[in-house]
Amino acid sequence: MLVLSRKLNESIVIDGHIIVKVVRVDGDVVKLGITAPMEVPVHRQEVYEEIQKNNLEALTQGRAAVSALPRVPRPKGDADTGVWPRNRNTAKKQ
Amino acid sequence: MNRVENVASVPSPAQAENTISMPMGLLGFERIKEYVLLADPAEEPFLWLQVSNDANLAFLVVAPQPLLPSYKPEISPEDVAFLGLDSAADAAVLSIVTVRGPNHATLNLKGPIVLNRRTLVAKQVIPANAAEFSVQHPLPVIQP
Fold first, then answer.
1. How far is the alpha carbon of A70 from chain B, nearest alpha carbon, in Å?
2. Under an 8 A CB cutoff, do A69 and B39 touch?
3. Contact B141, B118 (CB under 8 A)
4. Is B37 within 8 Å of chain A by CB?
C-alpha cells in the first residue's frame, strides 16, 4: 500500500482525474473531499461490503428456483406503486 | 388506474418486461450492466430483475414504499444527476428481496435500486440517510 502524508487542505490526484482532499481533521476523524467523474463510484468501504454481501445472498438461480413468494399485505385502495416504467410501458399501447 | 393492473390486461404475452440499463451494475456485480425487469400479475407486488442474457441469475425486487410507508431514502444530488431525474415522479424505488425461508424474507433498504422510469436507466444507490436503514429489514408478511 502506498502511504502518503498530507496536511489539511492538501490533496492527492489519482489517475489524473480523481482528487482526494483532506477537508477537515478533528481528533480521530478525517473528512475527505472526493472529486471524481460521475461514472466512478465512491463508497464507504464497510457500507459497500455490507450491500455487496447482501446482493450475493439475494441472488437467485432464476424465478423458477423460488417456489413460493412471501405473502405480503396489499396496500389499501388502487395505489400506483410507482414502479412500472413510464412511456415505454408496452401495456399502455394496448 | 394501477399500472401493474394495466400490465395484467395485456392479452399476450401475459408477462411484461422491460430492459433496464444499470451502467454501474449492482454492488459486487459491477460487470453486469443489462437487466430485464419482469412483471407477472400472479407475482404482484414482486418483480424480477433478471440478468438479461442469463435467466438463471435473477434478483427478486419489490417497491418498498407501499409496504413500508415511512421509508424515505434521500437520494443524493449526484445520483439524481447520474440518473437524469427531472422530477420525483420519474423515479421508481425498488428494494432487493432476500428470501430466507417459507414466508420469510428481508428487504435491503440501505442499498435501494432507483430507476428512471422514462429512460429505464437504474442504479443501486446508497442514500444520504443510509445509516437509518438495514440491509436486512424484515419484509412485512401475512401470517397464515
1. 4
2. no
3. no
4. yes
> Can you give the residue range of the structural domain that contains A29?
1-60
Full residue range of the structural domain in which residue B50 is found: 3-138
Cross-chain residue pair B58–A90, CB shorter than 8 Å: no
Instruction: Say what the pTM is.
Output: 0.84
Q: What is the mean pLDDT of chain B?
A: 88
Contact yes or no for B58/B51 (Cβ under 8 A): yes
**Is B144 among the domain residues?**
no
**Side chain identity at residue B72, one-letter code:** K
Q: Is A88 on the interface with B (CB under 8 A)?
A: yes
Q: Give the residue, A76 or B29, on which the prediction is more confident.
A: B29
ipTM of the complex: 0.85
pLDDT tens digits along B64-79 = 999 999 999 999 999 9
Interface size between A and B, measured as CB pairs under 8 A: 175
Distance CA B93, CA B66 (A): 11
Quote the pLDDT of residue A76. Answer: 58
In a domain, B94, yes or no: yes
- Regarding beta strands B113-116 and B122-124, do their DSSP bridges make them parallel or antiparallel, or are they unpaired? antiparallel
User: B120 or B4: whose pLDDT is higher?
Assistant: B120
Task: Output the CA–CA distances (angstroms, integers) from residue B4 to A27, B50, B59, B104, in the order listed.
Answer: 53, 18, 19, 24
Distance from CA of residue B41 to its chain's centroid?
16
| Percent above pLDDT 70 for chain A | 79
B103 interface with A at CB cutoff 8 Å: yes
